Every structure is written in C-alpha cells, then in structure tokens.
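Summary for the funding panel

The consortium committed to producing paired sequence-structure records for every protein in the target list. Below we show the first two records in order, beginning with the earlier of the two.
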Amino acid sequence: MPYLDHLTIAVRDLVQSRTWYVETLDLKVEFEVPTRNASALQDSGGFTLFLEQRPAEECTPSCVLTFRVDAVDSTYERLVARKVRFERHPQKLFWGYGAELRDPDGYLIRLWDEVSMRDKG
C-alpha cells in the first residue's frame, strides 16, 4: 500500500521559512537543493517537508499541515513563552482537540496529541 513520503510547499523566503520550521516545530534540515532554492526538512517520524522558494504570487497557502506533538498543552505553553503567536489556543475544535497557528507564508498549522484528542476531543 502506498504511503505519503513528502510534501512540497511554496514559500516566499526560504531562509525565513526554514528557520521558522526548525525553531518552532523542531524539524531538522535533511538536505538543501540550492539549484531549486529548496530545503528538505524532516520530522521525527521520517516525513519530509520540502520548502521551495517561489515568487510571492505563487505562494498562496494550499494545504493545512497537521503535526502530532507529545502534549499539545505543554507545546503551546512552551511556544507562547517564546513569543510564537497562535490563532487558537488548545481547545476542542471541529477536527478534535488541538491548537492552531500559521507559518510565515500563512499555511495553517494544527498541533494535536493522542491523549488530548482521546480525552478532550
């Protein structure tokens, strides 16, 4: 059966977006593709998110990125302490219990964890 291996999103500023994903969501730089103005970032589960710099008019957010974290409430508190802005604090939302924020290009980022989803979702 096939499985999703990677996803590419268009970003306006590769350095800014790469820094945001590394510092905010703890993704690791897997490799860079300078000829494509792209970075491959990997999560702890082995999924790769490609960031590819493109002109601003090609950078309309076209998907929602949902990340499972160890504990959404403590992740939220840690990020807020670092001045990361959230659109929605951890709460019950239509998709379950979690928090929402946006990356520098406006992509919606959802954070959730298994225990909170089961107990509060």
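The next record, for a separate protein in the list, is shown here:
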Amino acid sequence: MKLILIRHGNAEDSSSTGKDFDRNLSQKGIVQTKELAEYLIPKSISGEVFCSNAKRTLQTYQSIEKSLPTKVIFLDELYLTSKDELLKLIWKNQSSETITIIGHNNGLSELASYLLGDLLILSTSACVCLSFEIDSWNYISQATAQLAYQFNPKTN
C-alpha cells in the first residue's frame, strides 16, 4: 500500500480577502508545481486523492491533475489539519491501495515523520511516497512506513 503526501506550492504572502485560506500560488509556486507535475507523470499514480479546499492547494491540484487519478475528494477539513486528523482520514479508507493527500504543513510533515519514525520536512511542492507492508490502512502507525520516493522542487 502507498500513501502519497503532497504539500501545496509556494503561496503569496496575503490574499485580497485577507484570509490565509484564500492565498494564491506565487509565481515561484507555479514554477514549483510544474516541476512536480513533470516528476509525477511517469509514476502512474492510482487510487484516491484527497485535496484541501484552500485556494493554493486547489491550484496545486490543477497543475498536477493529469498525473493523478480522476477520483478526487475536496475537503475543507484538510485545511491546516493535524497529523492525528490525517491519520483518522486514512484509517477510514478501505477502498484503495493508494491514497494521495494534497495539503498543508505542519500536518503533512508531522504525519510523514511519524510514519517513517524519522524527521522529514516537506518544503512547498514537495512530494513523498510512503510504502507499507500491510493489507489494511487500519494497521499504519508510528514507524511502519518505508520511503519509496521523494521529490523536492529545484525552485526554492
């Protein structure tokens, strides 16, 4: 089983509404997500995708959607969510061997670090694929993952 975690691209410092939720990708973020899209194309990702409804995560998804499965679930609850809430989402899923989550830090980095049993910080537009030798998402816990692959954009 595989869990793919993708952090949104670099975002502008503020939005026209003044709300963090509404921040757009910056020019740097747009370049980063294009690099990520090129990296993901040969990965042939299957399964389900869960994406935060925040503007920068939606824009990240739009940039990489050709590399992802067509079944996407957009959730407000993924906005700045915690490691524990991400785990609950994963544990509920029993229909897919691969889950992709497009979201935010600190939750994504904390989840990756917890599952690997080692510190891993996702930069903007970073992607990690964690693999598990299990047959149900119910069995994932601390230090049960292996790092299958990792991507960090050249544009930092």
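Regarding this second record: The beta strands are 2-7, 48-52, 72-75, 98-103, 127-131, 146-151. The longest strand covers residues 2-7.
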